[in-house]
Specification:
Blueprint: H1 13-26, H2 39-46, H3 50-62, E1 66-69, E2 73-76, H4 84-103, H5 108-120
Antiparallel strand pairs: 1-2
Helix pairs in contact: 1-3, 2-3
Keywords: DNA-binding, Transcription, Transcription regulation
Domain HTH gntR-type: 11-79
InterPro entries: Tscrpt_reg_HTH_GntR, WH-like_DNA-bd_sf, WH_DNA-bd_sf
């Protein structure tokens, strides 16, 4: 998986990194049980501070996307069923995206078509959508 960060973006680097790793897992580019690069190696590869990568890995761990073991490092977790906290987050983010799409003149059919296309590009290991 190739990480591409936009250093001029208003989105913090750790968020960009987190989002790209989650997308990589979702697309099946990173499989359950696969080891991520060490914090130091990821920082070097991405051209960022190791504290930024450490923060990203801690967030991913908290969210249940990776496990961290001192001996093995960070590994991708198996696919999980959505919990209530995630559903609430999803609803809030979709509400905002729906509002923005509507305000930009997009109709419901087009919005749902785009959502369907994006969802179909995700192929996490062991899941069937």
């Amino acid at each position: 998986m190739i990480i591409s960060l936009d250093m001029s973006s208003t989105v913090p680097i750790y968020v960009q990194l987190r989002n790209q790793i989650v997308t990589g897992i979702g697309r099946g580019e990173l499989k359950a049980g696969e080891t991520l690069p060490s914090v130091r190696q990821m920082a070097q590869d991405a051209g960022v501070n190791s504290m930024t990568v450490n923060k990203t890995y801690q967030i991913l761990k908290t969210e249940g996307f990776i496990e961290i073991d001192r001996r093995k490092g960070a590994t991708v977790c198996p696919v999980q069923h959505a919990e209530e906290r995630f559903r609430e987050k999803l609803e809030a983010e979709l509400e905002l995206l729906s509002a923005e799409a509507s305000l930009k003149g997009m109709d419901k059919k087009e919005f749902l078509r785009i959502c369907e296309e994006m969802f179909q590009t995700m192929h996490p290991a062991g899941s069937e959508a």
